[in-house]
């Protein structure tokens, strides 16, 4: 499996199952997508503002749910293996992405795995163990969380910097060297934690040292 980032803005994600797992997946996708969760009962959990529909579809009703909601991704998170299998086959028949939460191997085209994810602003790191050990993914996620502190602010700062250097017509080689010097600079990182403007000043000094007056 190869990790890719998928933009779910404007898309629908359909979740079957309202237990802790359905709730976790609903929260994950609700930050971008419209999420609909179908289940006969819902755990006392945060569903991220997802729409909840209290029903227990039989296997032959699953296709109708896909047709009515037209999802980009379906999550099979019930405790009924036969229902989850039907969710998978109906999704596959329609070319819709599917996440089976009750399996970890034997994947086919269109199968997606939800990785453990750390975010800081626009920076995102995701961890998967190829389905072998979700507990390890979670543990590693907790370990690297602190590593990402201020990475979002660094992405903002250097994003603006590379736009400015491009506008000013600085040669590509020098742009590359300047941006690399900023992301590797400990003083810039230190100031990011204290406020964006001091960090930007420090970054400007680093850039001047690399680019000089000569474009
Ligand atoms: C294949 C996958 C499919 C998918 O869901 O996409 C899958 C499948 C299964 N998980 C199971 C169990 C657990 N899952 C977790 C936790 C997480 N599981 C997540 C993803 C994935 N889980 C995908 C693979 C990811 C990878 O490649 O590593 C995370 C990372 C993302 C998320 O869900 O948000 C999230 C951590 C989020 C975070 O904290 O950052 C814990 C830990 C806990 O609960 O404390 C346990 C108990 C401990 C254990 O068993 O390891 C079982 C057995 C069920 C049973 O025995 O009945 C199956 C089914 C099977 O393995 O057959
Ligand atoms: N991928 C993952 O991260 C993990 C996956 N699992 C797997 O995910 C499954 C769900 O886990 P939990 O949420 O803890 O289980 P749970 O038993 O708490 O919840 C199951 C949910 O499915 C609903 N349901 C049952 N029949 C349904 C139907 N016909 N249509 C719609 N909803 C229906 C139930 O009402 C309930 O809301 C487990 O069976 C297990 O195999 C378990 C732990 C982690």
Automatic annotation (TrEMBL):
Biased composition annotated in UniProt, kind: Low complexity: 203-215
Q: Which residues lie within the region annotated Disordered? A: 193-215
Q: Which UniProt keywords apply?
A: NAD, Oxidoreductase, Porphyrin biosynthesis
Domain (Siroheme synthase central) ranges: 125-146
| Alphabetical GO biological process terms | porphyrin-containing compound biosynthetic process
Q: Which SUPFAM superfamilies match?
A: NAD(P)-binding Rossmann-fold domains, Siroheme synthase middle domains-like
**Pfam families noted in UniProt:** NAD_binding_7, Sirohm_synth_M
Query: EC annotation?
Result: 1.3.1.76
Annotated catalysed reactions:
precorrin-2 + NAD(+) = sirohydrochlorin + NADH + 2 H(+)
Q: State the Gene Ontology terms under molecular function.
A: precorrin-2 dehydrogenase activity
Using the UniProt record, name the top-level EC class of this enzyme in a single word.
Answer: oxidoreductase
InterPro entries found in the cross-reference section: Met8-like (IPR028161), NAD(P)-bd_dom_sf (IPR036291), Sirohaem_synthase_central (IPR028281), Sirohaem_synthase_N (IPR006367)
The pathway that the record names for this protein is: Porphyrin-containing compound metabolism; siroheme biosynthesis; sirohydrochlorin from precorrin-2: step 1/1
Source organism superkingdom: Archaea
- Stored PANTHER family: SIROHEME BIOSYNTHESIS PROTEIN MET8
Official protein name in the record: precorrin-2 dehydrogenase
Record lineage: Archaea, Methanobacteriati, Methanobacteriota, Stenosarchaea group, Halobacteria
């Amino acid at each position: 499996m190869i990790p890719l980032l998928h933009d779910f803005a404007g898309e629908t994600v359909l979740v079957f199952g309202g237990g802790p797992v359905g709730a976790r997946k609903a929260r994950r996708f609700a930050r971008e997508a419209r999420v609909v969760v179908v289940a006969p009962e819902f755990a006392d959990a945060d569903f991220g503002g997802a729409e909840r529909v209290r029903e227990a579809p039989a296997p032959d009703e699953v296709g109708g749910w896909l047709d009515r909601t037209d999802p980009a991704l379906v999550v099979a998170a019930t405790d009924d293996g036969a229902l989850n299998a039907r969710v998978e086959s109906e999704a596959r028949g329609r070319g819709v992405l599917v996440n089976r939460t009750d399996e970890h191997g034997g994947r086919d085209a269109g199968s997606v795995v939800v990785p453990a994810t750390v975010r800081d602003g626009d920076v995102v790191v995701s961890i998967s163990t190829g389905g072998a050990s979700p507990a390890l993914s979670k543990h590693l996620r907790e370990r690297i969380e602190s590593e990402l502190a201020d990475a979002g602010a660094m992405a903002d700062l250097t994003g603006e910097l590379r736009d400015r250097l491009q506008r000013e017509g600085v040669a590509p080689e020098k742009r590359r060297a300047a941006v690399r010097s900023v992301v590797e600079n400990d003083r810039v990182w230190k100031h990011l934690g204290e406020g964006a403007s001091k960090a930007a000043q420090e970054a400007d000094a680093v850039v001047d040292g690399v680019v000089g007056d000569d474009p």
